[in-house]
Every structure is written in C-alpha cells, then in structure tokens.
Amino acid sequence: MKVVLKTLFNMFPTMSKPNLCLFFFLMISPNFSFAQTTDSLYLTNGDMIVGEIKGMDRGVLTIETDYSDSDFKIEWDGISTIFSNSFFLIILSEGKRLNGNLKSVSAEKILIFTSDSSVVDAQKEDIVFLKEIEKGFWDRLYASIDFGLSITKANNLRQLSLRSNAGYIADKWSADANFNSVNSSQDDVEPIRRTDGGLTYRYFLPKDWFVIGQVNFLSNTEQKIDLRTTGKLGIGNYLVHTNQSYWAFQGGASFNNEKFSNEGSDKQSMEAFLGTELNLFDIGNLSLLTNGTVYPSITEKGRWRADLNFDAKYDLPLDFYIKLGVSYNYDNQPAENSSTDDYVFQTTFGWSL
To answer: What values do phi and psi take at 341, rounded to 5?
Structure first.
C-alpha cells in the first residue's frame, strides 16, 4: 500500500496527500468503480470532478455529473489529469484519428489505449478533439439554429434572418449541411431575398489531409440570381490544428450552373477553386470564424468569383449564443443589369446542440 501511494505521489506532485489518498480508495472501492460508470478529472485549481465526459472540442471539455442540473464546461488547459474508460474518437493535432480511452500519467502526458490494443503516448496539448462513440447515432450529431428579426415603423420595414447548420461526425468522415436566409420587405420597394446553403462531405486522410465534396446553392435578388448551383471536388489540409485555432486550406475543381432572372442569361461553366478557413476560439466565450473562396473560371475567359464569410459568436449559458455574421459575394461578370457584388450583415440569437 505504501509503495502504491508513493508512486501516486510521484505521478501527481501537485495533488495534496489527503485528496490523493481519497482518490486512490475511491478507485479500489467495490462500490465505486471508475472503470464501469464514471470518468474523473483533476483540475489545476485542485478540484476533482467525477462524471461522464461527453467530449472536447475547440479547447473546451464537457462533462455531465449526477450532482448538477447542467453540464460542466471546462477549458482543456485547466485540466491537470484525466482518467476515463469511455471509448472516444480522438483527434491529435497532427491529424491522426484514434479510437480508445484515456489515462493521464502526468500533467502533460496522456496514454491512449486504442481499439487495436496498442498504446499511444500523447502530449495533452496535442489532443484537439474528443467524442464519445459508444453511444448511438444521435450522439454523433451537432446542430445550431439562429433567428434575427427587425421591424421598423418607417416604410413598414420587416426583415427576418435565419441561419442553421447540422452535421454528423464519424471515425473517418464527416457530413455537414447549412441553410441561411434573409427576407426583407418595405413599402414601395421590391422585396429583397437572399438564400444560400450547402452540403459538405469530408473524408479524412493521414497528416491532417482530407478529401472534400461539396454542393452549394445561392438565390439572390440583388445579383438577379434565381439559382446558382456549384458542385466542388477537391483536397485540403489543416495547416494549424490546435486547441486555440484551426486553419485549413483547400483547392480543386467545380462545376457552376446558373439561372438568372434575366432571360437568356443562364450559364454553365467549369471553374477552379481555392479556399481557406480560420477559426479562433481560445478567447473566452468569443469565437471567430472566417472563410473565403476564389473561383477563377476555366471555360469563361477573364471571369472570376469570390465568396467571403465572417462570423463572431459569443456563448451564453445553456448553449445559447449571440452571433454577428457578414457574407459577401463578388462576380466580375454578373448577369446583365445586375450588381457585381452583394453583402449581408446579420445579428442573430441562437442555440446549439
């Protein structure tokens, strides 16, 4: 017994002896088994939390406990040690994707016991994503929905905004869908409508590379676009993949089919595309997402398009949030008598799953 406790003291030098002894006896107690029902966290401030780890994403770990009505959200940097026999999808900063459970051996080092009976030695800072995978289909889903409403007496102005997305993450692939809409009307002015959305599939490769297939659509009264459908196929890579930020780029080829409100202006064309996305989230309750894509045409001489998006999200309690979003579209050869560009500024209130 003394040898075991001495070993634990050496492994966890920051833990007080009374707490370490209690932790040890809880683990060996027949009435309290971590291996069967619970995960445990020891925090850098000395607190200990026992419960069920739901996952970790963007530097924040979520754990459910029996003694709280709501889940605890803890910054990954604030966790000293972690012990779990739950089965997770684990993503490392180098892009490696593993299935297994976790055991800390020090404040900076974690052992990952994988499904193929191997053991991976990882630094805590290199673990950028956890998702429990022993559960069913619904536990792999994520979703969010935002609403915005503006009403002005002058000119009887009404504007309604809707932003939504949903996705599913598997061991080697992910699928996402998004839908955004802005409808504005006022007296003596033609209604303004803008709707965009898309479906995205990513298959993850070693070294943080991925194959991407995507279909996007856009309807926009400002640029007289009844429907623009763009299908893309390409490859991308995460240049930065940490608990503070993601930065990815992607490129490939796309097919563009456009129907305009101007008769005779419909187009079909082949394009290349080059895009980048930057997500910053280690700034308290605030996260920033920026992405942009440029489409130089292959079959239409001199034509090129660009799509830019920026979102600032501030997290509120109970998974609610406030979001400010800006979307911008540019086309140097638009439909006849239409604008070369269009932008939308939205402030919305939302909830995420």
So the answer is: -145, 165
Cβ-contact 312, 322 below 8 angstroms: no
| Cβ neighbours for 228, distance < 8 A, ≥ 6 positions apart | 217, 218, 219, 220, 256, 257, 258, 259
pTM over 0.90: no
Which residue type, as a one-letter code, is found at position 207? K
In this predicted model, what pLDDT tens digit does every residue of 68-90 receive, in sequence order?
777 888 999 899 999 988 888 89
Q: In the 8-state DSSP scheme, what is residue 207?
A: G
Q: Tokens representing 59?
A: 């530097």
Report how far residue 301's alpha carbon sits from residue 285's, in angstroms, rounded to the nearest whole number.
Answer: 46
Distance of alpha carbon 169 from alpha carbon 89, whole angstroms:
10
Give the largest CA-CA distance in the chain: 86
Q: Strands 341-352 and 320-331: what pairing?
A: antiparallel
pLDDT (average), residues 148-172: 81
